[in-house]
Design brief:
Structural class: alpha+beta
Bound molecules: flavin mononucleotide
CATH superfamily: NADH Oxidase
Distance between the termini: 35 Å
Number of helices: 5
Largest sheet: 4 strands, antiparallel
Radius of gyration: 17 Å
Number of strands: 4
Strand order of the largest sheet: 1-2-4-3
CATH architecture: 3-Layer(aba) Sandwich
Helix content: 25-40%
Length: 179
């Protein structure tokens, strides 16, 4: 997509993917986008784990009881972690990197979905972070923010309608209660 504004309107969360693998060159571009992300004090506290193994993706989909469905068809997922001892802004660092990846994915015409891991739980009470950390051997000092599922879209999502944007949430000059 050439036009950035058009890209923003067309990026929607995709939770159903085809079987087609993501081209390795596209995977590289997606990871590169994460590595270009700004971070607090330039700490670059993030680290990313690329998962393409079907069995592991299925296992990771069990990290929480709901809203992990996009993992069951995704051919690719990037687990977004950051070193909590390196930056008090690790959540922000990791969030920006995750968002950059979602935009790069959209620019490639692929789909993605953010699966929240931090502060989410399985039905048995186990924190999703511990489950993912254990499955992938992630060190204890790394927080696991989310998993970005990625693949070729297998569902149609309507673009965002600019006429429906919540402009009332934008205050000009100072906070105003009346809109
Ligand atoms: C912080 C954050 C957490 C999210 N967690 C999940 C999730 O766990 N599972 C999921 O399917 N979608 C998740 N999403 C995607 C949102 O549900 C989605 O962005 C929202 O409904 C708006 O839809 P859109 O992305 O298609 O515009 C998350 C998005 C963000 C930014």
């Amino acid at each position: 997509m050439d036009n950035f504004h058009e890209l923003l309107l067309n990026r929607r969360s995709i939770r159903k993917y085809t079987d087609q693998k993501v081209d390795p060159e596209d995977v590289r571009l997606i990871l590169e986008s994460a590595l270009t992300a700004p971070s607090s004090k330039g700490a670059r506290s993030w680290q990313f784990i690329v998962v393409e193994d079907r069995e592991m993706l299925d296992h990771l989909s069990g990290c929480k009881s709901n809203y992990a469905a996009s993992m069951s068809t995704a051919p690719l997922a990037v687990v977004v972690t950051a070193d909590i001892t390196k930056s008090e802004a690790w959540i922000e660092d990791a969030s920006v990197a995750a968002s950059f990846m979602q935009l790069q994915v959209a620019a490639l015409g692929l789909g993605s979905c953010w699966v929240e891991v931090r502060d989410r739980y399985r039905d048995d009470g186990e924190p999703a972070e511990d489950y993912v950390r254990q499955a992938l051997g992630i060190p204890e000092e790394f927080g696991v923010l989310c998993i970005i599922t990625i693949g070729h879209k297998n569902e149609e999502r309507r673009p965002i309608d600019p006429a429906k944007l919540q402009w009332e949430k934008v205050h000009i000059g100072k906070w105003r209660n009346e809109q």
